[in-house]
Amino acid sequence: MPKNWYNILPDLPEPLPPPLDESGKSFDVLKTVLPSEVLRLEFSNERYVKIPEEVIERYLQIGRPTPLIRTRRLEEKLGNRVKIFMKMESHTYTGSHKINSALAHVYFAKKDGTDFVTTETGAGQWGSAVSLASALFELKAHVFMVRASFFAKPYRKYLMQMYGADVHPSPSDLTEFGRKLLKENPEHSGSLGIAISEAVEYAMKNSGKYVVGSVVNSDIMFKTIAGLEARKQMEIAGEDPDFIIGVVGGGSNYAALAYPFMEEELRSGKRKRRYIAAGSAEVPKMTKGVYQYDYPDTGKVLPKLKMYSIGSDFIPPPVYAGGLRYHGVAPTLSLLMSKGIVESRDYTQEESFKWAKLFSQTEGWIPAPETSHALPILKEIADEAKSKNTTYTVLVSFSGHGLLDLANYAEIMGFK
Ligand SMILES: Cc1ncc(COP(=O)(O)O)c(C=O)c1O
Q1: Among 118, 181, 242, 298, which is 20 to 30 Å from 358 by CA?
Q2: Of 99, 247, 403, best ligand 1 pocket probe by most atoms within 8 Å of the beta carbon
Q3: Which run of H or E residues covers position 276?
Q4: Class of domain 64-95+218-413 (CATH, top level)
């Protein structure tokens, strides 16, 4: 088990453009709602940050280190041109990479002496991770869940409730912002950007702490536990990846796997691997978005961030990969994309789900709808290897399982 998290800030090719406080109020919002240590780490230039013992103990409890598996039957289907290694974040208790940072955020919130934490969730992966982390640190959690998912995806809601969290459909009548939106449209289906604004407002007004599930530097740093484990596991396997691939909602699981491998390349200035991130073609912020200052939330309460974005007012279509329905990309990942260090692709739900089915049949694991969007990249890499008459080693972020998303797969695939 790694004893430190990795922070990419000191190794970036140029300084990260800072957050912008246009309203003159948004930095005060951050200071009030974020756990103080999370805020400090957000701007820290320490390369390695010691993981508190209390967090390590809970990492062990929830299934860390997670396995790194080789997918030989899938390799066969791709013509044996790629050796594929998958970092299985699906093997944690809540079924995704989200618990890796939830434990850290909630631990730091508890240290500040708060009674409760708030957060937003789309399909419920992040919400269930925060709910479990809160249970393990004995804090109350209030989760604002995108209204459409609250009704359409009850199982993660039940999981959160089982862990003791209060789950509110967003927009809700608990906040001023939610009440305004419900007045305009009582059937409002909600979005992640709206749920963030509500979670922040609720924490502000009731002296709670808000925990952020992606995008920001501190969240990615906490999640690098996965990439640091994978670095060691690849070393033990005697392998070195030529490609590192994964999916991007806000960017955290992909960055968390890729950054510890990138460290050596960024520090030496010698490029060695290719990094490819995939998103949803229905929410094409990476391939059609602009690298610009934009709000991370729809209510425009938080400071603007420089990132690839298709606009904080963009209301994403109701694709089932709820975690990819976010309008922006983490500022550190956006900077690396703007420099050509990380490439991007977008795939439709239809194409990704075909790969999810193939993967389920070759490997036995059901990928989360989000995770399935990484799989089409494997075909592109295998084709390239074939055209160059070589083989490549690929490391994949298997960000979560889809066992609670089977109804969504069934609908698209027409299962009776
Ligand atoms: C399983 C899974 N993968 C990927 C994502 C995308 O988020 P991020 O890019 O922050 O890892 C999510 C977000 O909800 C998710 O639940």
Answers
A1: 242
A2: 247
A3: strand 274-280
A4: alpha beta
